[in-house]
Amino acid sequence: MTLHAITVLGHDRPGIIAQSTAILGSLGLNLEDSTMTLLRGRFAMVLISEGAVDTAAIEAALAPLGVSGDLTVAVRELPDEEQVRRETTSWILTVHGGDRPGIVSSVVAQVAAVGGNITDLTTRLSGELYLLVAEVELPVGVDVDAVRAALDATADGLGVGATLSPVEADEL
Predict the structure, then answer these.
(1) How many CB atoms lie within 10 A of CB 165?
(2) Model-level pTM?
(3) Phi and psi dihedrals of 74, rounded to 5?
(4) How many Å apart are CA 144 and CA 2, to the nearest integer?
(5) Contact 97, 158 (CB under 8 A)
(6) Strand order of the sheet with strand 42-51?
(7) pLDDT in tens, 101-140
(8) Whether the Cβ atoms of residue 124 and residue 76 lie closer than 8 Å to each other
(9) Can you give the pLDDT at residue 81?
């Protein structure tokens, strides 16, 4: 069995998810992980699938999605890698304020600086208000107060607000 990353990007229209996943299912592929969203009115989907089908066959089966030219589909085989499990704690990071370049890179750099990992990140722009919501894993034992202080200092420098909140076990 092999893993494949499949991306579909382009103009949004009803039925993209249904059509894409039906094609993959007809090939006997199992969806292991996925994310699908609209970005500024454009559809964006990333799927991780597993099955005994090669990249060329998946590309050929998904080719009809891109015939009209409004969607781009890409398929890439993923290497078989052992997942390293780390002891972490789960957090939600929110940032909001006036939009400006550098918010994402500056804020997530503070998480990376302590060995933290961003496992999901969403941003939205509504008029002049910029909102970032990220799921964060921090290594067990990290000084959370120091991380919050670094995030606050970075946010202050950007003119935005930042909050780092723990995820309770019953929220998972």
Answers:
(1) 11
(2) 0.81
(3) -135, 145
(4) 39
(5) yes
(6) 30-39, 42-51, 2-11, 71-78
(7) 999 999 999 999 999 999 999 999 988 899 999 999 999 9
(8) no
(9) 75
Calpha distance 23→17 (Å, rounded): 10
Tokens of residue 18, six digits: 């249904």
Tokens of 65: 């999605």
- Which segments of 52-150 are extended strands (E)? 71-78, 88-98, 117-126, 129-139
Q: What residue has token string 């409004």? A: 70
How many CB atoms within 10 Å of residue 166? 12
Distance CA 98, CA 128 (A): 6
The token duo for 40 is 């500024």
CB 49 within 8 A of CB 32: yes
Across the beta sheet with 117-126, what order do the strands follow? 117-126, 129-139, 88-98, 160-166
Helical segments of 66-142, H only: 103-113
Residue 62 — pLDDT band, cuts 50, 70, 90?
very high
Task: Determine the average pLDDT of the residues in 161-170.
Answer: 87
71 touches 6 (CB < 8 A) = no
Q: What is the mean pLDDT of the chain?
A: 94
Q: How far apart are CA 100 and CA 76, in angstroms?
A: 34
